[in-house]
Amino acid sequence: MRPPTLNIFPSQPMHVDPSPKVDMGLTSPRASGSKRPPEPSVELASARNDVASAPPEPPKTNVKREGNRKGPTSTSEQQGPRTPDPKTLRRLAQNREAARKSRLRKKAYIQQLETSRIKLSQLEQELQRARSQGMFLGGGEVLGGEQGLPVGISNISADAAVFDMEYARWLEEHHRLMCELRAAVQEHLPENELRLFVDNTLAHYNEMINLKSMVAKSDVFHLVSGMWKTPAERCFMWMGGFRPSELIKVVLNHIEPLTEQQLLGICGLQQSTQETEEALSRGLEALNQSLSETIASDSLISPPNMANYMGQMAVAMNKLSALEGFVRQADSLRHQTLHRLHQILTTRQAARCLLAITEYFHRLRALSSLWLSRPRQE
User: Which of 61, 161, 230, 290 could cross-link 368 (Cys pair, CB 3.0–4.6 Å)?
Assistant: First the structure.
């Protein structure tokens, strides 16, 4: 007879209690049909109990390990977000305030654009009305605004009107930047912080150069005439703006003390600027002389021959297109002068220089207002 073997693959699940089967084997051996004594059955039942009770131990250990492993994570998740420190709260408040101001500026700018659109529409209507009121007469004679005489507000182009409104907006923004720069100078901020205000001001001047370059393509006469400036400012106009060399003389006494190297640099800058100004002035004078000769090349007394007349106008138009180039070169010289001064001076001196320039033009505008509002003598 073979010795009893251990059944490691029980027919019943391990969690089922095998005790009833053991009792059944002991009390009714006939039902089992086995001739073996009951002792081996008891041994087999006890072995099954050992096998069934042994395996559950390792899973409990694994569950505990997994629980220990997941414990810190669930605890940290239940803690919730930490309260930000005061520095973070202050930065968040500053960001919200900056965003609010940005939205307000955007809203104001949109309103200005809408106002500009309405004004431009009115200008176009007035221009159409002026043209429909019989400006052209028979015989090729031209009267009114077509002769270059003022015909009210219709004499300004749409691009020039947009430029005037953008220039007014630029002046408002420039005033705000100058107030911030003046406050920074008075508070004696460190140079690295003060440099930010100076750079913002120079970038704002660059925006003005870009505005002028756009209107120069469509209406360069508006820039040269200076109608976008006040009367006192127009007395000092040179090719659509200020003379850089004269501006150096104005601010030189307000940026002292200067080192010897700085004085040499500013003197060299002023000399080179004057030479460039003289070269541009001679070029513009030659253009004016050539344009005058072209216009007067045919008889000015007898009625002109239309073929000759149109030929003269075509030549004059080609010459006149060079005026835009002179204005661009003059603006480039003004731009280079400001940035060259910024390179020569210290940050604090450059801040005082920009404040002096702003105050100079502000006083010219104030002088114009006083002149226009003076009491008239009959």
Answer: 230
